[in-house]
Amino acid sequence: MRLILLVLALAFGAPALANDLLPIVPTAIGDPHPEGNDFMRRNHMDMMKHGRDLTLREGERDIDASLGQCFDCHAVVEDGAPVTYDNEKHFCRTCHDYAAVKVDCFMCHRSTPAEDDLNRAMAKPEDADSIAAYLARVAEESQ
Amino acid sequence: MTNRAELTRRDILKSGAAVASVTLASGVTLMAFGGTADAKGADAGKRWGLLIDAGKCDANCNDCVTACSTENGWGHSDHGTPETDVQWIRKVTLKEKATGRTVSAPVMCQHCEAPPCVDVCPTGASMQRPDGIVLVDKHTCIGCRYCMMACPFKARSFVHEPVTDQKVGAPRGTGTVESCTLCVHRVDKGRIPACVEACEQAGHSAILFGDLNDPESPISKALESYPSIALRDDLGLNPGVRYQNM
Predict the structure, then answer these.
(1) What SS3 class is residue B68?
(2) With 60 as the cut, is the pLDDT of residue B21 above it?
(3) How close does chain A come to B2, measured CA to CA in Å?
(4) How far is CA A26 from CA A39, A78, A82, A90, B242, in A?
(5) Nearest-neighbour CA in chain B from A24: distance (Å)
(6) Does the distance separating the beta carbons of B190 and A130 come in below 8 Å?
(7) Cα–Cα separations (whole angstroms), residue B19 to A63, B4, B7, B32
(8) What ipTM was estimated for this complex?
(9) CATH class of the B48-244 domain in this structure
(10) Is B145 on the interface with A (CB under 8 A)?
């Protein structure tokens, strides 16, 4: 009898229990992913891994899937500052803690948005630190 | 957009859209994808290098080292262990015993054409980009430090302490080896390295940056016109960093 009660309790209690146990994904800002959330949940790691090899080894930086871009929309702000990976409220940790998946990204990468986006855009020739402006200055000096 | 384009390549193949195919022979087909294969990133036709004029370098100036440290986020550790702190670039002062003449110049990764650090790396983490910049792929670095032993210039450092709040352009982490990247994140975006910028702003302009493969570039012309040396030229590594007036 006890066993039957237990089975019944599990059968009816499980849905409510499951909702409580699922990770609460922090809301993001910005436009939703064109691929959809289901696609991103399944494929974000492959997108980033492929991008990292292209960027580091080939110097291809115009990649539309980088950690920095994740944090454009997915930074969790607490007390006025974005939380780091050490905080369990960090966007990546909400699901990865739940799935018991350890990610090593933040051993080297910063886990918060960049303080400045200086190096994300291509330098304009008129920028003082652009290679074009620099070479023009050097050429002028040597004359 | 390449990344996302890659992911959907299978879908493109399935749909047959945006694919031009040419049959070369029976069973051999050449396929081209619409607009996804444009050449970007490190240019194999270039070889970035530096020419350091020790005659212009001020012995009391440390601006290149400071700029590198600020740009790449190293050297700020508060662990109180200076002997294990990393050093991407250092000022070296040489004194000729016979004459007493001293010269000062910055020494960093020399971005060799035949880098010994790449030869000895057991995991392929120590690598050279198509444009000659030598880097450590920290995704595959196991921290064995063979490259540090192989480098004749003592250019590489091992990260002993945990790092937080890294710069976006320069990810760094404990247990990996690192060195000067020639500010690859800036170069890829069309900007000059931080040390070059700082030296120019300090009024010395002792570091000349440019493409060694381009005979018309200021660095190639200077190398052609004036005497210069490579550090440890006897090793035949053909470094991308050269020195004048040493």
Answers:
(1) helix
(2) no
(3) 6
(4) 18, 12, 13, 9, 52
(5) 26
(6) yes
(7) 22, 17, 15, 6
(8) 0.81
(9) alpha beta
(10) no
Domain chopping of chain B, boundaries: 2-33, 48-244
Amino acid code (one letter) for B83: E
Best CA proximity match to B244, nearest among B208, B210, B216, B211: B208
Of the partner residues A57, A110, A131, the one whose CB lies closest to the CB of residue B129: A57
- Please name the residues between 7 and 66 in chain A that touch chain B, using a CB distance below 8 Å: 35, 43, 46-47, 50-65
Helical ranges in A22-86 per DSSP H? 37-58, 67-74
The predicted-structure confidence for A62-87, as pLDDT tens digits, reads as follows: 877 888 889 989 999 999 899 999 99
Tracing tokens 């066993």 back to the chain, one arrives at A3
Segment among A61-70, A112-121, B50-59, B109-118 with least mean pLDDT: A112-121
Per DSSP, helices labelled H in A63-104 are: 67-74, 91-99
Of B176, B188, B205, the CB nearest to A61: B188
Interstrand relation of A81-82 and A77-78 (parallel, antiparallel or unpaired)? antiparallel
Cα of A137 to nearest chain B Cα, Å = 10
Chain B residues within 8 A of A134 when measuring between CB atoms: 192, 196-197, 200, 209
Q: Do B1 and A58 touch (CB under 8 A)?
A: no
Mean pLDDT on A11-30: 71
**CA B59 from centroid of its chain's CA atoms:** 24
Torsion of Cα atoms, B219 then B225 then B229 then B234, to 10°:
110
Give Dmax (Cα) for chain A: 99
- Tell if the CB–CB gap between B4 and A119 is shorter than 8 Å: no
CB contact under 8 Å between B2 and A54, yes or no, is yes
What is the distance in angstroms between the CA of the first residue and the CA of the last residue of chain A? Answer: 99
Query: Considering all CA atoms of chain B, what is the largest pairwise distance in Å, rounded to the nearest integer?
Result: 77
> What are the beta bridge partners of residue B28?
B25
From chain B, the residues in CB contact with A123 under 8 A are 189-191
**Cα A133 off chain centre by:** 34
Residue A80: both structure tokens together: 């006025």
Q: How far apart are the CA of B102 and the nearest CA of chain A, in angstroms?
A: 26
Strand pairing class (B177-178; B157-158)? antiparallel
